[in-house]
Each structure stands twice: as structure tokens, then as C-alpha cells.
From TrEMBL:
Keywords: ATP-binding, Cytoplasm, DNA-binding, Isomerase, Magnesium, Metal-binding, Nucleotide-binding, Topoisomerase. This is DNA gyrase subunit B. Heterotetramer, composed of two GyrA and two GyrB chains. In the heterotetramer, GyrA contains the active site tyrosine that forms a transient covalent intermediate with DNA, while GyrB binds cofactors and catalyzes ATP hydrolysis. The record marks 464, 467 as: Interaction with DNA. It comes from the Bacteria. The gene is gyrB. GO terms for biological process: DNA topological change; DNA-templated DNA replication. PANTHER family: DNA GYRASE SUBUNIT B, MITOCHONDRIAL (PTHR45866:SF1), DNA GYRASE/TOPOISOMERASE SUBUNIT B (PTHR45866). GO terms for molecular function: ATP binding; DNA binding; DNA topoisomerase type II (double strand cut, ATP-hydrolyzing) activity; metal ion binding. It is found in: Cytoplasm. Residues 433-550 form the Toprim domain. Mg(2+) 2 binds at residues 515, 517. The keyword Transmembrane does not apply. Belongs to the type II topoisomerase GyrB family.
Length: 816
């Protein structure tokens, strides 16, 4: 297809302007790429999900660095159906001129380790990339990578496979724009655990970046699941804290914001107290989330403790406290963000989880000491409210300690370390043991009878446990069900990680097992709230699971089956309908059942791709385009052929609705495209028919599947079983017929309650390790998790009402 493009000779004169302050001479080379594919963990942390997403972050970090240097305002991230991703910005564009090494600067950046402008302090004052290895490592760990640069009036590109250039950097068109677009597909031989990007996981990081770099606009689009989100916050850290507190009742209306610039270091801090019982303080260095804190967070906490203690020293309520204020009292209910920007940051560990620059602690602590004291003296009403909140926290801490001591004494005297209701397992090695927390005595009885007594323990809890989001610690510990659970687990509880001794956990897997109805969902949510607020370390270490009882029960004659979800049900119905049946083509030739199954799998895959592509273009459009053999990438380079195709396509759409089309020329890529505005059944669709869509892996696969389903066997098909026959015009019709045949005469129940199962059924479907389905509870987005628990389980009603109203139409399978 590229033989129709007009390429230009690559010279430094037509690639680079001499007065461009960010040019080829700014690229510094330190070493090569040889070891990246051999030991990828050294460069991205690991080859699991975290390392996979780090590939995107590295490319995005480059665009953020450009924004901080005063260039660009927008970053777009698009997740494609084939597992690839495209990241584009409107910054200056990677230099493409001749580098002193003899190659194009773009090729050097993409293929040589430690090559980039981040080692030149005149280009970037601060940088968040992974030690400068980002772009080249992303390229090396991808089966395919393509970079397109708009710079100095031209559009330039280069493609790579596993880090190896497929051709020299070349000019493919003209443009008045600027920026860089990188498309890559992670190598499955490197990322063997998964190559699937998580929209939620990415959203968490991109949201952070938008808050930390006020004014930048970041768009995330998931073409697979038809989701998108825009992140843009002009308030910076103030907006960040307001977002974190939006589902909480705040103590003072406006966040406290501090900005300092000392010794070539920028320090930003935003603080706001709320009426919750937990601390939510996040720390960053050069846009990097330092999840384990570091010297900047230590400095913040030190200053807070000193300033608040000085402020509260004359308060009568504080003076009446026998024990005084603790640092935890001061930080209870505090939401805050500290962000430092510095040259040459030092981190503990390759993954940059903890800032280690010792001077930063002194800078943060001294700066905040002075400014925060001044703020409280200038705003005495705010200071009074915060001190009152802290005094309440101190009183609650003292009461909670007494309640814990009482609970320990009762545990030792009355319960012998384990609650009497638990049916414990025989094995004493926690690594082999599982605890099933079961709703109610009925299901608890079945679980106790059906379990594997050697490794599975069962704890039935009565009714709904306390909502700990609204309860103080002493009230929580006085609740019998909570006490039973705490004693069974053995770790202790608390809102701080060091309150929970994970080494004393008695069970490797803690499984929440509730009914699949509304009450069961509520009880499950209460348990999740408890673990998130009081035993978060259990979630972080991967010990918490949710049992997945089968969703459907199928019964026909004396045959009974349990199916885990709708997909499993449909597969079972199709296979049941094919038993002892025969399928033949138009020539009367019988098709082997294994081949029929493969063809029906193609139907499922085709339907899935069609439905995804049709979300923005309609089924009418996709079904027509996927059947057109003349629609190839080459057609976009021939104006006459393309206009003829558009006219025929337009006539087809007019059979179903209204259409407006316009053919234009893409100067940047020297090819044509068409814009469509159509109205079908009252619904508008706006889309482009262009090279990118037709050459996309998803559309190419759709065309291949459609052709296979129509040409491999002569149609129509004939279904025969006993005396029943049915002629079907396509494989799609055959699949629909088999689904209906499977349902005929059967009783299919959407399953709800565990209590409806006897011990044997519960074991086979929900507890037996070889057949059961568990969901592991993880925290991909800690901020979103904190927000959702506060919103749904807290005292503030308006945010909860707004959430319910906004999501009401998204509810599926509502039990009413």
C-alpha cells in the first residue's frame, strides 16, 4: 500500500529547523538496548499487569514532560480492540533530524536505551520518565510499534517490530500541526500473564496526572468496551482534594493550599479535614505516585504535628485530655496531597515508590511550619473547627483502646481465641486454609456439611453486620458479629496498616459467600466496607475473595445443570441441541460436529466485533461494509474508485434512513476519506470512513470471518434430529435456532439463594477447588475505592442520591 505514497529524501535540512530549541543535538545517548527483552523486569518493574500498564505511562510521561516545558495541552489515549494502544499529543514532536550518531534522532530515541532530552537540563527542568528509558523500552517490548511525528511542516513516520526499525524515518505528508503519536502492541511472549489493558487502572493514573498538572486535558478512550473519560482540572491540587472529599462532610469549606519554590524545588500542598475516621494523604514527586511516601511526606507530617500541637496548646478541651494529642489524632479525617518537583530525584527501588532525597524533608517541613502557622492565625474559625475535630478523634482513640482491651480480655476468658460458631478446619498451616464467611444459619449449615473439613472453615454470621463507615471503633468492637469475625481472623483491626498483623492471619483465603439477591449484595458490600476500612492489608495482600455461585440452573427431564453465567448457558444450550443431531450443507454433505462448533465460534467472534464497531456506526453500516471485497486500504489512494464506492454505499444507507456525505483529502497522509452523518430509526451517527478504520485489525478480522462464514460451506444449511428438520440460510441463523431448541421444554431458573442448594450442590458448584469460581478483591484505584465507600456507605445523602440517579439506567438484571 505504501507504493502509492510520495516519500521524501531524509536530510537534516528538510527535517529540522536550526532555530528549534528542542532539536537533534539535545538527544544524549548513554547505552544500547540489548538487555531489555532479555530482562524486562529491570526496566518496567515486572512483566505482569503493573509492568504492562507502565508501558503506557512511560509514553504519557514524555507528553507530560513536554507540557511542563510549556509545549502541548492535550493527550489522547485510545485502547484498540486488537490489544494495541495509541497515545497522541500536540506538543513539539520528537526530533527527526540527523543525530550525531548518523541516524535520525527519532530512530535513536526509539531504539537506544537512555536516549532522550531528559538528560539535557536545558530541555526539561524536571522529568517523570522511568530513568529516561521509556520510549525505547516500550518499543523493545512490543511486537509492533509505529511512531508518527508532526514537526516543521511535515509528517514523518517509522515502524518497528520487537524494537527493530522496518525502514528509515520517512516523510509521508505535509501539515501545519505538531505533536507525536505512538501506537504499540505489547509482546505476549514477554507479558505472558496478560496483554489486556484495564480502563479503570489507567483512569486512576491519568486522573492523578490531570490533577497534578493543572490545565492539561487527557482523554482516555476504550474502543473495546465503548467507554471514554476526559480529565481536565484547572484547580490543580485544590481540585484534587475537593474530588477526594466530594462524598464526605468537610470540616472547613475550602482546602488549605500552599505553594513554595526553594532551591530549584517546587512544593505544592493542599489539605482539608472531613468528618471521617481515616486519613487519605497522597504524595508525589515529579508526577510519580510515591505510594510508600518518603521524605516529602515525612516533612509534611512533621510540620502538621508541630503546628497543630502549638496551636492547640492553649485550648481547654486539649488541656483536659489526660494523654494529649497523638499524630494519628491530628491526621484522622485529613485529606491531603503533597507534590514536589525537583531535579535528580532519588527513589528507593526501581519502581519509584518512595522518595529518598534527604533535603526535601527539611524543605517541606520548614516551609509548611511557617506558612501553615500564618494561615491558622489568619483564619481562626478554620483552626477552631479543625482542633475540635482532632479533640473528638483523641477521645474516640482513648475509648477505642479501652474497648480493645476489654475485647481482648473477653476473648481470652470467654472464647478461647476462636468464636464458638465457627466450624474450623483440621489443617493448622494458614497457607492451606480457607475461611468461608456465610450469610445466615441455613446456608451456613449446608456449607458446614458440604465443605472439605481438612482445609475449609465456615463462619456463619447472622443478619447484616454493622456499617463501619458510620461507626466509631468502640461501637464497632461492641458489635457481636464484628467481634466474631475479628477473633476468627486473628490479625487485629485498625485503619492503619500497622494495626493489622498479617503474620497472624489464620487463613490464606477469606471467602465472602452471600446470596445473589439484593440483600446478599448489601451484606457483601457491608463486608467489603469492613475489610477496606479496618483490614485493608488483607485486601492488599490478595487474601480476600468473593464466591461466585452459579447464576443459572437448567433442568430438563431428569437432567440438571448449574451454569456460572449467560455465556456458559448459551454454550451449553448450543451443545445440547447438537447432541445426536446432524448438520449438512447445500450439497447434502454432512459437516463434522467439531467443525460446526468451530464455525459457531466464528459466529460468536463475528457478533462480538460487529456489536463493538456498530456502537458508533450502526449495524446497517458495519454489516454492509464487512461484506464489500473492494473495500481495501488501497482504495483511499484512488480518488475515482473511492468516490464511486462512497456513492454506492450512500445509496444503500438511503434504504434505511437519511445520509449526508463529504469526501476530503488528508494532506498529512496523502489519501482520501469520507465523513458521514446518517440518521437511522431516529438515531444519529457521525463517523469517518478512512484508511485507519479499514486497515484496523478488528475490521480486517471481521471481513475475514464474514467471508469464511459465507464461502467455506455451501449455504443454506440443514439441521436434522430424529424426524425434525430445519433449513437455515446462514451460520448466524443456525446458532439462533440451536439456542431456541436448547431452551425448548427446559426449565431455566436465574439462581439467587445459596440456601436453595443442599450440601452436595453447594460443594460441587461453589466450594470445590476444581470447579468453583472466585473473584479476588483488589484495589486498582485506591482513590475511587475510597470515594465509592464514602458515597454509598457514609452519612452524606446528596452524593449518594446523585450517584443512584446517574447510574439507574445502567442497571441490568434488576431483582424486583
Amino acid at each position: 500500500m505504501f507504493n502509492k505514497l510520495n516519500f521524501f529524501v531524509c536530510t537534516s535540512e528538510n527535517f529540522e529547523k536550526a532555530d528549534d530549541e528542542y532539536g537533534s543535538s539535545n538527544i544524549t545517548v548513554l547505552e544500547g538496548l540489548e538487555a531489555v527483552r532479555k530482562r524486562p523486569g529491570m526496566y518496567i518493574g515486572n512483566t505482569g499487569s503493573v509492568g504492562l500498564h507502565h508501558l503506557i505511562y512511560e509514553v504519557v510521561d514524555n507528553s507530560i514532560d513536554e507540557y511542563l516545558a510549556g509545549h502541548g495541552s492535550k493527550i489522547d489515549i485510545v485502547l484498540h480492540l486488537d490489544g494495541s494502544v495509541t497515545i497522541s499529543d500536540n506538543a513539539r514532536g520528537i526530533p527527526v533530524g540527523k543525530h550525531p550518531s548518523g541516524k535520525s534522532a527519532l530512530e535513536v530515541v526509539m531504539t537506544v536505551l537512555h536516549a532522550g532530552g531528559k538528560f539535557d537540563n536545558e530541555v526539561y527542568k524536571t522529568s517523570g520518565g522511568l530513568h529516561g528509558v521509556g520510549a525505547s523500552v516500550v518499543n523493545a517490548l512490543s511486537t509492533f510499534c509505529r511512531v508518527e511525528v508532526k514537526k516543521n511542516g511535515g509528517v514523518f513516520e517509522q515502524e518497528y517490530k520487537c524494537g527493530i526499525p522496518q525502514y528509515d524515518v520517512r516523510k509521508i505528508g505535509d501539515t501545519s500541526g505538531h505533536g507525536t503519536s505512538t501506537t504499540f502492541k505489547p509482546d505476549p511472549t514477554i507479558f505472558q500473564e496478560t496483554t489486556e489493558f484495564s480502563f479503570d487502572y489507567l483512569s486512576a493514573r491519568l486522573r492523578e496526572l490531570a490533577f497534578l498538572n493543572k490545565g492539561i486535558c487527557i482523554n482516555l478512550v476504550d474502543e473495546v468496551n465503548d467507554k471514554s473519560q476526559e480529565f481536565k482540572y484547572d484547580g490543580g491540587l485544590i481540585s484534587f482534594v475537593e474530588y477526594l472529599n466530594r462524598s464526605k462532610v468537610v470540616i472547613h469549606n475550602k482546602p488549605i493550599y500552599m505553594f513554595f519554590e526553594k532551591e530549584e524545588t517546587v512544593i505544592e500542598i493542599a489539605l482539608q479535614w472531613n468528618d471521617s475516621y481515616s486519613e487519605s494523604v497522597y504524595s508525589y514527586a515529579n508526577n510519580i505516585n510515591t505510594a510508600e511516601g518518603g521524605t516529602h511526606l515525612t516533612g509534611l507530617r512533621g510540620a502538621l504535628t508541630r503546628v497543630i500541637n502549638q496551636l492547640a496548646s492553649n485550648d481547654k478541651a486539649v488541656q483536659n485530655l489526660k494523654e494529649g494529642l497523638s499524630p494519628d489524632d491530628i491526621r484522622e479525617g485529613l485529606t491531603g496531597v503533597v507534590h514536589v518537583k525537583l531535579r535528580d530525584p532519588q527513589f528507593e527501588g526501581q519502581t519509584k515508590n518512595k522518595l529518598a532525597n534527604s533535603r526535601i524533608r527539611t524543605l517541606v517541613e520548614s516551609s509548611l511550619n511557617e506558612k501553615l502557622s500564618d494561615y491558622f492565625h489568619e483564619n481562626p474559625d478554620v483552626a477552631k473547627k479543625i482542633i475540635s475535630k482532632i479533640v473528638d478523634a483523641a477521645r474516640a482513640r482513648i475509648a477505642a483502646r479501652k474497648a480493645k482491651e476489654l475485647t481482648r480480655r473477653k476473648s481470652a476468658l470467654d472464647l478461647g481465641g476462636l468464636p464458638g460458631k465457627i466450624a474450623d478446619c483440621q489443617d493448622r498451616d494458614p497457607a492451606n486454609c480457607e475461611l468461608f464467611i456465610v450469610e445466615g444459619d441455613s446456608a451456613g449449615g449446608s456449607a458446614k456439611q458440604g465443605r472439605d473439613r481438612k482445609t475449609q472453615a465456615v463462619l456463619p454470621l447472622k443478619g447484616k453486620i454493622l456499617n463501619v463507615e458510620k461507626a466509631t471503633t468502640d461501637k464497632m468492637l461492641s458489635n457481636q458479629e464484628i467481634r466474631l469475625l475479628v477473633q476468627a481472623l486473628g490479625t487485629g483491626i485498625g485503619r492503619h496498616d500497622d494495626d493489622v498483623d498479617i503474620s497472624k492471619l489464620r487463613y490464606n483465603k477469606i471467602v465472602i459467600m452471600t446470596d445473589a439477591d439484593v440483600d446478599g449484595a448489601h451484606i457483601r458490600t457491608l463486608f467489603l466496607t469492613f475489610f477496606y476500612r479496618q483490614m485493608k492489608e488483607i485486601i492488599k495482600r490478595g487474601h480476600l475473595y468473593i464466591a461466585q455461585p452459579p447464576l443459572y440452573r437448567y433442568k430438563k427431564n431428569k437432567v440438571e445443570h448449574y451454569l456460572k453465567d449467560e455465556s456458559a448457558l448459551e454454550k451449553f444450550l448450543v451443545e445440547t441441541s447438537m447432541q445426536e443431531a446432524s448438520i449438512s450443507d447445500a450439497n447434502g454433505s454432512t459437516i463434522e460436529l467439531s467443525v460446526v462448533k468451530n464455525m459457531l465460534s466464528c459466529v460468536e467472534r463475528r457478533n462480538r466485533i460487529t456489536n463493538i464497531l456498530a456502537r458508533r456506526r450502526s449495524l446497517v453500516v458495519i454489516n454492509y461494509l464487512s461484506g464489500q471485497l473492494s473495500l481495501t486500504p488501497d482504495i483511499f489512494y484512488n480518488k475515482s474508485d473511492f468516490e464511486k464506492f462512497v456513492d454506492i454505499f450512500k445509496m444503500h444507507i438511503l434504504k434505511y434512513g437519511h445520509v449526508f456525505t463529504k469526501v476530503d483529502f488528508d494532506n498529512e497522509h496523502n489519501r482520501y476519506y469520507a465523513s458521514f452523518d446518517i440518521q437511522l430509526s431516529g438515531k444519529p451517527y457521525h463517523f469517518k470512513l478512512d484508511f485507519d478504520f479499514v486497515s484496523s485489525p478488528e475490521f480486517e478480522e471481521l471481513k475475514k470471518l464474514s467471508n469464511q462464514l459465507e464461502t467455506v460451506f455451501s449455504l443454506p444449511l440443514k439441521y436434522s434430529h430424529d424426524k425434525k428438520t430445519k433449513v437455515l440460510g446462514s451460520w448466524i441463523e443456525l446458532r439462533e435456532f440451536l439456542l431456541a431448541e436448547g431452551r425448548s421444554g427446559a426449565y431455566i431458573q436465574r439462581y439467587k439463594g445459596l440456601g436453595e442448594m443442599n450440601a452436595e450442590q453447594l460443594w460441587e458448584t461453589t466450594m470445590q477447588p476444581s470447579t468453583r469460581q472466585f473473584l479476588q478483591v483488589t484495589i486498582e484505584d485506591a482513590m475511587a475505592a475510597d470515594d465509592i465507600f464514602s458515597m454509598l456507605m457514609g452519612d452524606d445523602v446528596p452524593p449518594r442520591k446523585e450517584f443512584i440517579e446517574s447510574n439507574a439506567l445502567n442497571v441490568r438484571n434488576l431483582d424486583a
